[in-house]
Design a protein that fits this description.
- By secondary structure, the protein is an alpha/beta fold.
- The protein has two domains: 3-98, no CATH class; 111-217, 3-Layer(aba) Sandwich (Rossmann fold).
- It contains twelve helices and six strands.
- The chain has helices spanning 3-7, 10-22, 38-42, 46-59, 71-81, 91-98, 118-123, 129-135, 158-161, 163-179, 190-202, 212-217, and strands at residues 66-68, 88-90, 111-114, 141-143, 184-187, 208-211.
- The strands form two sheets. It has a four-stranded parallel beta sheet, with helices on both faces. Strands 1-2 form a two-stranded parallel ribbon.
- Helix 5 (71-81) links the parallel strand 1 and strand 2 (88-90).
């Protein structure tokens, strides 16, 4: 579970568990897990960040796979520890590459656009895996996001250190979202959804942000809240 998920977006983690258990995966949640160290590394505290990544790897030692609803956290652990860590997967990677499934039986009757996050694109290179999963969701209309590959402006501490630039980037992203006439913006990172969601909320647009896991966890018999 990511720090943002634990403190602000617990539904994303709960959706991961519900989805994986529906697919027959035995899920365990080690309660002693803490931050992966990315925030510290991004802020210049490299030794402290790597130490946290190593602690996280020790907590998950022995598991067949570690699944996280965050490309940025998965990228942090894999980039810093490499072969020293248990197999760490962003959710869409695990579903498509490990479980070899694209249709997870989801049902989500809404107009949705997908924002590919920077870490998913450039660090993990998840490619079209999230799109393939979303395309198989029943009842959903998936619409393309203009200039989708452009950053939303969050970038961890970048949004704090470069607030004016970040806000300008966010304005472009919000405008592109609104151009799609989507009800929902989906992504694989809660951090980007928090940033985009803030812009959408302040503009009183009525557009919601929803994590990929929440859409995939929703079924016709058990719609996700």
């Amino acid at each position: 579970m990511t720090c943002l998920g634990d403190t602000l977006f617990p539904a994303a983690g709960q959706a991961v568990v519900r989805l994986l258990e529906r697919l027959g995966v035995e899920v365990e949640f080690p309660e002693e897990q803490t931050c992966c160290g990315q925030m510290h590394l991004n802020s210049g505290y490299a030794d402290e960040g790597v130490a946290l990544a190593r602690r996280l790897a020790a907590v998950f030692e022995g598991y067949e796979a570690v699944v996280t609803p965050s490309a940025s956290c998965a990228g942090m652990v894999r980039e810093q520890l490499g072969a020293d860590a248990s197999p760490v997967h962003e959710l869409s990677e695990f579903l498509v590459d490990v479980l070899e499934v694209e249709d997870v039986g989801a049902y989500y009757p809404h107009r949705v656009t997908y924002h590919p996050t920077c870490h998913s694109l450039r660090a993990l290179r998840v490619g079209d895996r999230p799109g393939r999963l979303l395309s198989a969701v029943r009842g959903m209309e998936l619409v393309e996001l203009p200039d989708a590959l452009e950053c939303c402006g969050f970038g961890g501490t970048f949004a704090v250190k470069n607030a004016d630039v970040s806000t300008a980037m966010l304005s472009d992203k919000v405008r592109n979202v609104l151009d799609t006439k989507a009800e929902v913006v989906c992504a694989v990172d809660s951090s980007c959804l928090m940033h985009i969601g803030g812009g959408l909320s302040r503009g009183r647009t009525g557009v919601r942000t929803v994590h990929l896991a929440e859409i995939l966890a929703s079924t016709e018999d058990e719609p996700w809240p």
